[in-house]
């Protein structure tokens, strides 16, 4: 790094102290992770803004524990302190103001114990987290403000019913044998990500059969319901960014499932293309950056059996590029994304899917 830039980051960047972390622990921030050494005490020169910090304890045999992380909005020159608790193998926030001020006054002497933030990956991080705000993070993150790659499940019998609801939630009826061996499980309260729920009703009350069919194809009504849970429409895109980062870096599979669901709803929302084209332009931009960070084998390994992204993007491109009423900027951005994913993943969006191709019937000439 250029010395001038290094000096500026040291003076204006934030500092994260992770005290007492065992040697060999995996510690990371954004796209970079390391195994801690004897001198490690934290990370310096962190650019102001929202970042993702994560860690995993490592056994003597080299086994790595599930990844735990949290989002934090660093202010300019801020000093953040977390301490390792060996009993729970996690970092906790129990630093006093006096301890923090002592560390802040001794930054230059502690410099050798702090690893520099890898500035060369900062632009990539910004491209994938550009819409994140403290409001969005605060709404989506678990109540305990920690994100674990492994969901802690407990029996639903151990979870008290909501205070405002005098009746228990309805359950799917199962056989006695299933009830004995397969208890109802759900995430421990306060540990799950609070993503926007996909509404059960995908069409307005009182819709005709024709309208129900329309809404089963065009997810605009469904998308508008989800957008209404936020103050601004692009906060839904911020949630989509957060879901992608929680999967890509946090290794949270449920975040990947939510990302897939929201991607499909956006791609099948035909009517919204005319109502809010700027939102879809932003959506396409986010997908473009996300597709840069996954290898060509990524979708083959995980979802190739369903061709999920090929199918959904094919619908999106068709709805945009084949509609003369669609905004020209939106058409241009869709064409750019189509060209990019075609080249990167070798996907052909112009080949008609087998299940949509016309069926050829051979007639018996003797009849």
Comma- or semicolon-separated keywords:
12 strands, alpha+beta, 15 helices, five-stranded mixed beta sheet, single chain, five-stranded antiparallel beta sheet, 367 residues
List the helices and strands and how they pair.
Layout: H1 3-12, E1 14-19, E2 26-29, E3 32-35, E4 42-46, E5 49-56, E6 68-74, E7 79-85, E8 90-92, H2 97-105, H3 107-110, E9 114-116, H4 122-129, H5 134-140, E10 147-148, E11 153-155, H6 176-181, E12 185-187, H7 209-217, H8 220-227, H9 234-248, H10 253-267, H11 272-275, H12 277-292, H13 298-303, H14 308-321, H15 328-345
Parallel strand pairs: 1-7, 4-9
Antiparallel strand pairs: 1-4, 2-3, 2-5, 5-6, 6-10, 7-8, 11-12
Helix pairs in contact: 9-10, 9-12, 10-14, 12-15, 14-15
In brief:
The chain has helices spanning 3-12, 97-105, 107-110, 122-129, 134-140, 176-181, 209-217, 220-227, 234-248, 253-267, 272-275, 277-292, 298-303, 308-321, 328-345; strands spanning 14-19, 26-29, 32-35, 42-46, 49-56, 68-74, 79-85, 90-92, 114-116, 147-148, 153-155, 185-187.
Structure commentary:
With 367 residues, the protein is an alpha+beta fold. It contains 15 helices and 12 strands. The strands form 3 sheets. It has a 5-stranded mixed sheet with strand order 8-7-1-4-9. The chain has a 5-stranded antiparallel sheet with strand order 3-2-5-6-10, with no helix packed on it. Helix 12 packs parallel to helix 15 (328-345). The radius of gyration is 25 Å and the shape is globular. 27% of the residues are buried. Residues 162-175, 301-305 and 357-363 have low confidence and may be disordered.
């Amino acid at each position: 790094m250029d010395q001038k830039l290094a000096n500026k980051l040291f003076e204006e960047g934030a500092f994260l102290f992770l005290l007492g972390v065992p040697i060999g622990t995996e510690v990371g921030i954004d796209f970079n992770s390391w195994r801690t050494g004897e001198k490690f005490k934290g990370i310096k020169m962190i650019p102001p803004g929202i970042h993702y910090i994560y860690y995993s304890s490592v056994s003597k045999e080299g086994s790595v524990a599930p990844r735990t992380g949290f989002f934090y909005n660093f202010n300019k020159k801020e000093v953040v302190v977390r301490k390792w608790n060996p009993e729970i193998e996690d970092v906790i926030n129990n630093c006093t103001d006096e301890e923090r001020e002592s560390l802040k006054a001794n930054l230059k002497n502690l410099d050798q114990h702090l690893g520099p933030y890898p500035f060369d990956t900062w632009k990539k991080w910004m491209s994938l987290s550009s819409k994140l705000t403290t409001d969005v993070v605060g709404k989506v993150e678990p109540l305990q403000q920690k994100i674990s790659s492994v969901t802690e499940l407990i029996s639903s019998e151990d979870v008290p019913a909501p205070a405002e609801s005098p009746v228990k939630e309805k359950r799917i009826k199962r056989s006695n044998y299933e009830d004995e061996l397969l208890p109802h499980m759900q995430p421990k309260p306060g540990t799950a990500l609070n993503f926007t729920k996909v509404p059960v009703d995908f069409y307005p009350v009182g819709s005709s059969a024709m309208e129900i069919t329309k809404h089963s194809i065009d997810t605009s009504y469904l998308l508008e319901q989800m957008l209404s849970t936020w103050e601004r429409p692009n906060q839904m895109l911020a949630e989509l960014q957060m879901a992608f980062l929680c999967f890509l870096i946090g290794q949270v599979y449920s975040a990947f499932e939510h990302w897939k669901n929201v991607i499909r709803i956006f791609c099948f929302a035909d009517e919204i293309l005319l109502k809010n084209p700027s939102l879809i332009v932003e959506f396409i931009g986010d997908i473009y950056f996300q597709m840069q960070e996954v290898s060509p084998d990524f979708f083959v390994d995980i979802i190739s059996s369903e061709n999920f992204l090929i199918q959904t993007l094919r619908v999106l491109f068709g709805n945009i590029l084949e509609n003369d009423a669609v905004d020209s900027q939106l058409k241009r951005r869709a064409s750019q994304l189509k060209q990019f994913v075609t080249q990167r993943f070798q996907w052909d969006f112009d080949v008609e899917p087998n299940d949509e191709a016309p069926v050829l019937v051979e007639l018996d000439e003797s009849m």
